[in-house]
Structure formats: structure tokens, C-alpha cells
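Repro:
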Amino acid sequence: MLRRAVNISIARGRMALMSYATLPDLLKPSGAPAELPKLGFNWKDGCAPVFSPRQMELHYTKHHKAYVDKLNALAGTTYDGKSIEEIILAVANDAEKKGLFNQAAQHFNHTFYFRCITPNGKAMPKSFESAVTAQFGSVEQFKDAFVQAGVNNFGSGWTWLCVDPSNKNQLVIDNTSNAGCPLTKGLRPVLAVDVWEHAYYKDFENRRPDYLKEIWSVIDWEFVAKMHVQAIK
């Protein structure tokens, strides 16, 4: 029964991707390896006021780069010209390609996360604030619910805000474990927060609740709002 539910979710994800791509620029180029995407800011300066330069160095140039390198090693030329999202959905339910799924999904997840943050953050557009308030009651209530979800996300994983196209494009908070990606559930992500300890340990040690409460200071709400507009089309 569980396997059937997973298959249905992945099928929904594939159908959604036929007319929608979250990060269309994230590709496995033909005849070339996937690359570590450039950030919208200089990681050597950190991401004030939340992340130190050392934390950004470890997370971006070590962890994220390692996923990209392993993706290239496992994918070879088989998936040349495919988007990372297409690769994720193509192998999500293939036990023999679990390693490839993990690397592709972590590449997507990290890229999305790093696009959600910027030094000192950017203000939330009124249109998106209205959407959040309509769904959660207020922005503060949303933040409280999101932080609680992240705190309760046991072990390593991700906490997301997504659009659910199967339910009137409602905004939903979703937790995934390890390399889990909401694309496989047919959800369209608009905000990602990494709750693997490597995302925050240098600056926050094991204090995940503190990290999640501070992350709002660097969220690029303009990017999040853009993803929301894209997701509900």
C-alpha cells in the first residue's frame, strides 16, 4: 500500500513537471558535467547576520560541491541534456539508482535553499504576505508553524513551504528526510530550509531551534514570492 502511494506521488510529480519546472536553469548539460551554481552573494563574506564565512564555506564549497561531483560521477552521460528535476523524478522509485537520486536531489535542494537566502534578507512582497496570511492566519503564525515543523523534523532533512496543485494551490509546510524532495510528491516548492546539521553547526552547534528562528533574517522573500507566482500559474 505504501509503495503504491509513493508511485502515485511520483507519477503526479512527473505529470506536474510536464508543464512546470521549478529551476529550469538547473541542468545536466550535454557533453559537460553539472556545475556548482554561483550564489547571488559572495560566500566569503558569509551571509549576515546569520551565517559566518566559515559556515558558508563548508556548506557551499564542501557539502554542495560534493553532491555535484558525485552526481556527475554517477550520472555519466546517460542524463545529458536533462534537467535535474527530470533526473530526480526518473530515478526516484528505482532502488538500484538510490545513490543517483540522493545526489541529484541534494543538488536541487541545496540550489533552491541557497537562492532563498541573501545577506540581511529582502522584504516580503505584499502579494505574498496576503497569500501567507490567507493560509496561516498571519505571517507570524506561519513562521511559528514552520519553525515547529523544522524542529520536529527528526534527524537530517529539509523543511519546505510548497504549493499543492492538487489542492487548489494551497500553501503547505512539508518535511522531507535526508535527500527527500517535495517534487516527488507532486508539490511545488517556494521556500526551502536545510535542517541537516552541516547547514548550521559551525554557527549554532546543535541548537536547531535557534537556527530556525534566526533564518528569517536572511530569507530573500522576493525570490520566494517569485517562486509562488510561478507555482500557481
